[in-house]
Fold this protein.
Amino acid sequence: MANDQEFTRLIRENKRIIYKICNSYCSDKDDRDDLAQEIIYNLWKSFNNFNAAFKFSTWMYRIALNVAISFYRSEKKFKNHDPILEGLIVFEETQEDKTEVEKNLELLQGFINELKEVDKAIILLYLDDRSHREISEITGFTETNVATKINRIKDKLRANFSKK
Amino acid sequence: MELDELKGMWLSNDAKLEKRITLNEQGIELIKLQKVKSKLTPLYRQRVIESIFHSVAIVLLVGFLCKNISQFPYAASAVMLLAFYITTLWNALKQINIIKTLDYSKDLATIQSSLVILQTHVLNYAKLTVLFIPTFLAYPVILTKVIRDFNIKALSAFDIIKQSNGNWWTAELVVFVVLIPLGLWFYKEVSYKNVDKKWVNDYIRKSSGTRVTKALEFLKELQSLKHENI
C-alpha cells in the first residue's frame, strides 16, 4: 500500500516528463493517450526494482523514453487503447492570447516533433537541464557523441528559426 | 533564436505546465490493477517452440551419428546438419535470453538494440539458409540411410551414395569446400554494419522486408552513438 501511494506521488511530481515525452513522440491525441498509459504501466511494472539510491527522474526517463521510442517505431502501435483510461494526462488549454514566449515554445515543440527518435530523446533531456553525463547515462551514448548531437540539433534549430 | 535561449523559456514554462496538466489518478489506480502480461510473450513462445524443434533435430542427428560413426560419408553429412541445427538453436536461445532479461530501465542504446535484434530474427534464417546451402545435399544421404536402417521396404533399395556410384558424396564434399568459405563471407557481410552497402541493403530488403532494413539502419545509428565518435 505504501508502495502504491509512493508510486502515485512520484508520478504526480513528474507528470510533466510524461506529458512532454508523449507530446514529442505522438501527434495524434489517441496515440498520446495510449503512450501515456503504456509508460505508466511499464513504470508500475518495474517500480519494485527501482533502487531508491538513484534519482527517480533518471530511472523514469529511461523507461519512458524506451517505451516512447518503441511506440514511435512500431507500425501497428500498441492497439490497446482503453477508453476508461482516456485523458490520463490532460493539458488544459486557455482562451487567453498566446504570449511571445508561448509562440516560440510552440515553434520549438513543432521542431522537436520533426526530429528523429534518438534526437528527440537527447533534446528533451537537454531542455530539461540534464548534464551531458546524465544524458549519457540515460541514453547509453558517449558524452562526446551527446555533445556533438546537441550541437548539430542547435545548428538545425537555428536554421529552422531563421526561416520563420 | 538560439537553443540555449529556448531552454530558459522551456524551463521557466515548467511551473505553468505543472498547473495546467491534470493527472487522472483514478486511471493510475486502474493501471496498477491491470494483469502484468508482457507484449513479448507470443514471441517468447515462438522461440521456445523453435528451440524444441531444433533440439529434437539435434538429438536425432546425434543418434544417427553414433550409429554411423564408422561410415565416413554418413557421419560427415550428419555433422554438417548438426552444425546448422546447433547454430539455429543457439540463435533461438539468444533471443529467449534477450526476452527474459529485457529491462526497460536500462539505457536506450542497450534496450533499443535488443529490441532490434528481436525484430530482425527472420534475417538470421535468411543468412543461415545461404551459409548452409551445402548441407542441403546431406539431407538425401541421411534420409535414405535412415529409411534403410528402419527397413522401410518400399524405399529400402534406394541408397543415394550407391546409386550415384559415390559421386553424390564427392559432389557434397566439393560443394562444401567451395561454398562454405563463400557462405561465411556472406554471413559476415550481411550485417547492420554494412546496411549502407547497396547489395547488402537490397538483400536484406528482399529477403526480410523494409521493416527489418529500417531496424538495422536504426541499430547502426545506436551502435555508432554508443561506441564511435560520430
